[in-house]
């Protein structure tokens, strides 16, 4: 049984020293982590064995700073990630693990396409799980001052997994950001949502597909997934639609969207009373989707709009949906042009977050506001024409 009360004490209740929060000398930072762990109830010998040989890994920091793939627009990004081979293998995996997917659907009400898509994108169905030492990754990112509040608690979660016999500080490997296993879960998520689905007495997310899939499903349920409801659906929009009503944060009932002329590309729309947002990832000339409440849960797993939309869309493909209509979107901006745009938007008083060349949620909102002000189609898709007007 997990010592959840002890883990909560360490991660939530203890005062945190300046060194433990982030920065400073790395050895001093590790010493601070050790002291906190022992104050929380772990014995010195366990703590010393756990942290023995831990080191700062420059490759981790380099990977954290170089996520350029998320600068690509949705159509290009999704076509790059979704190959026929991935579709075919996903369907094969659906058959191979039909029993566990049926169990997931019965227990959590989560469609198998959702888990298959995560499994495919995170590790190519378990084939590529990452070879970074997980403890080094977690401590390096906890020491770094960009996101210490995310990674510091993960160090103690890994210590708890170690004390339970489910983590090896020297041998456990995974992604550069500390995620472990076939669906890439952080240690704290494993503690809270890990499921021994194959009944061997351990949660083995690296080697057991049933454990990984059931744990991923429990995590999605914990994050708020609404059982047996859709998450994304491709639609067609009328030419006279008020585009300023589109976007992830502008939700209407399905009935209201229907009244405005939004129609499904195939099948039928969801319950008329269900709320949904109309997403135009590359503007009104590109693909269009209705995003239902479950779509929001994806952002608890990953913060990239492009990644999330692609994962959600791939889930629909694996569940039988047709390939989207790519349309003929207006030309977008290069990475350097996007940074110029973000700087101009920031100068106009918009909060776009970090000027990173990535079309994130806040940049989209600012773009839409400026498009509306300038009398352009307010579809949140930045073009060279908008950049020129600004």
Automatic annotation (TrEMBL):
Residues 1-20 form the signal peptide. Its EC number is 4.2.2.-. InterPro entries: Lysozyme-like_dom_sf, MltB-like, MltB_2, Peptidoglycan-bd-like, PGBD-like_sf, PGBDSf, SLT_2. One of its GO terms (molecular function) is peptidoglycan lytic transglycosylase activity. Residues 334-390 form the Peptidoglycan binding-like domain. It is an enzyme of class 4 (lyase). Coiled coil: none annotated. Residues 26-314 form the Transglycosylase SLT domain. GO terms for biological process: peptidoglycan catabolic process. Keywords: Lyase, Signal. Pfam families: PG_binding_1, SLT_2. It comes from the Bacteria. This is Membrane-bound lytic murein transglycosylase B.
